[in-house]
Design brief:
This protein has a single domain, classed as TIM Barrel. Helix content is 45%, strand content 12%. The chain has 12 helices and 8 strands. The protein has a 6-stranded parallel beta sheet with strand order 2-3-4-5-6-7. A two-stranded parallel ribbon has the order 1-8. It is globular and about 50 Å long.
Length: 307
C-alpha cells in the first residue's frame, strides 16, 4: 500500500548513520538504533537526511543504509530515505535506487548550488515524482541551501499529487503559517525544527522529523503525544526544559555533537566524516551538563519519571 499524507503522523527520528572504529558504515549499529527508535514509539524513521551525513557517503554506502533501514524496520513503520543531491540527474538516480530497495517515501531536498525560481522548483519535483515511482516529501532547509518554497508552490505540488508532505526546517513562523494555510489540507506539513515542535503542532503539524530523537526518542514521543491529546501547556513545558540540550547539540555542525552525546549515553554511533571533525572540549562539557539536567530523563534517553 502506497504511503499517503494521512499516514504521516507522530515522531520520525532523523537518524544518524553509524560508523565503526574504521569509519565504515556499521549495519549492526544501524539496526540497533532503529530497534531502539521503534521500541520508544517512533511512528517511522528517516535515513540519510543531513543528520545521516548523506553528502559524506558514497552512492554505494547510501544504498546500503537504505537497505539496512528497510530490513531493520520490519514493517513497523514507514522508512523515508533522504535524497540530498544538488541536481536532478543524481537525485533521480539515487531516489529510484532507494525506492527499489524498499523505501516507502523519499525526502528530496530543494536543488542547491544552481538555484532556480519557483517554476523551476515546481518542474523539478514533478519530474522527480515521475522518475522515482515513490511518494515524495519536500525538504525545505534554507539555512543549508539558500532555497525556500513559496507557499503557492507547495500547494501546487500537493494538488498535483507530487508531494504527500514537507519537512519544514525553517524558523520563519509566519511563512510556516502561510504554508499550512495553503497546503495543510492537502499534505502533511511536518515540523523539522526541534525547538518549534509544539508551536508547529498548534498550527496543525501532524508529525515531526527530529534529529535529537536519536538521543531522546521517548521524550519526544511523550511531548508529541501530550500536544496531540490537547495538553499543549504540558508539552510546551517539556519542550522548554530541553532547550539547553538542543542548544548544546547544535552548537557545532550537526551531527557532531549529537553523535558525541549518543556515545555519552551508551549509544555509540561512531565518529563523523570530513569536513566535520571531533567536537570541542567546550561542547563536550556543555553536552554533559545539559544531559545531567534533562528533567525526568535518564542518560539512556528513556523517561525516568513523568515530567
Amino acid at each position: 500500500m502506497s504511503l499517503t499524507a494521512a499516514d504521516l503522523k507522530g515522531i520520525y527520528p532523523a537518524l544518524v548513520t553509524p560508523f565503526d572504529t574504521e569509519g565504515k558504515f556499521d549495519p549492526e549499529a544501524m539496526t540497533a538504533l532503529i530497534d531502539r527508535m521503534f521500541a520508544a514509539g517512533a511512528a517511522g524513521i528517516v535515513s540519510l537526511g543531513g543528520t545521516g551525513e548523506y553528502t559524506a557517503l558514497s552512492p554505494e554506502e547510501r544504498l546500503a543504509v537504505v537497505e539496512t533501514s528497510v530490513a531493520a524496520a520490519k514493517g513497523r513503520g514507514p522508512v523515508i530515505a533522504g535524497v540530498l543531491s544538488p541536481g536532478f540527474a543524481e537525485a533521480a538516480e539515487a531516489g529510484a535506487a532507494f525506492a527499489a530497495a524498499g523505501a516507502d517515501a523519499l525526502m528530496v531536498v530543494t536543488p542547491f548550488y544552481v538555484i532556480g525560481g519557483q517554476q523551476g522548483l515546481l518542474d523539478y519535483y514533478c519530474r522527480m515524482h515521475d522518475a522515482v515511482g515513490c511518494p515524495v516529501l519536500l525538504y525545505e532547509i534554507p539555512s543549508r541551501t539558500n532555497v525556500s518554497f513559496a507557499p503557492e508552490t507547495v500547494a501546487a505540488l500537493a494538488e498535483k499529487g507530487v508531494a504527500i508532505g514537507i519537512k519544514y526546517s525553517n524558523y520563519d513562523m509566519v511563512k510556516y503559517t502561510r504554508v499550512m494555510n495553503a497546503a495543510g489540507d492537502k499534505m502533511a506539513v511536518m515540523s523539522g525544527e526541534d525547538t518549534l515542535l509544539i508551536a508547529h503542532m498548534v498550527l496543525g503539524a501532524p508529525a515531526a522529523i527530529l534529529a535529537t530523537a536519536n538521543l531522546y526518542p521517548e521524550f519526544w514521543v511523550d511531548c508529541f503525544n501530550r500536544a496531540a491529546s490537547g495538553d499543549i501547556a504540558g508539552a510546551a513545558a517539556l519542550q522548554k526544559a530541553v532547550y539547553p540540550m538542543i542548544d548544546a547539540l547544535f552548537s557545532e555542525p550537526n551531527p557532531g555533537p549529537l553523535k558525541k552525546a549518543m556515545a555519552m549515553a551508551g549509544h555509540d554511533a561512531g565518529s563523523v566524516r570530513l569536513p566535520l571533525v571531533e567536537v570541542s572540549a567546550e561542547t563536550q562539557a556543555a553536552l554533559k551538563r545539559a544531559m545531567q539536567n534533562m528533567p525526568g530523563v535518564a542518560e539512556t534517553g528513556r523517561l525516568a519519571r513523568s515530567a
